[in-house]
Amino acid sequence: MGAVAWVTFPAERFAWVRGTPAEFASSPGVRRTFCGRCGTSLTYRSDERADEIDVTTASLDDPEAFPPEKEVFAEQKLSWA
Fold this sequence. Notes:
By secondary structure, the protein is mainly β. It has a domain at 1-12 and 19-60: Metal Binding Protein, Guanine Nucleotide Exchange Factor, Chain A (Beta Complex). It is 0% helix and 33% strand. It contains no helices and five strands. It has a five-stranded antiparallel beta sheet, with no helix packed on it. A hairpin with a 6-residue loop joins strand 3 (30-34) and strand 4 (41-46).
C-alpha cells in the first residue's frame, strides 16, 4: 500500500455501530482490525497509546469530515507519490 489516511480518536469515545471486525495481532502490543469479508483495514491499536484508536479514514461513513492535517513517514514514500 502506498499511502493510507488515518484519524485518531480517544478509545473510550469509539464504538462499532454494526458488526464485529476480525482482529489480528500484527506485532507485540499492536492489534489491527479488518473486515472479515473483504479484508479492508479498519483500525490500529497500540499498547503504547492504549487510550487512542487509529481508524482508516476511508472506512468511515463520512471520510470527507476528516481531511489529512499532516504527513508522517514522508521519507519512506514511493518515488512516484
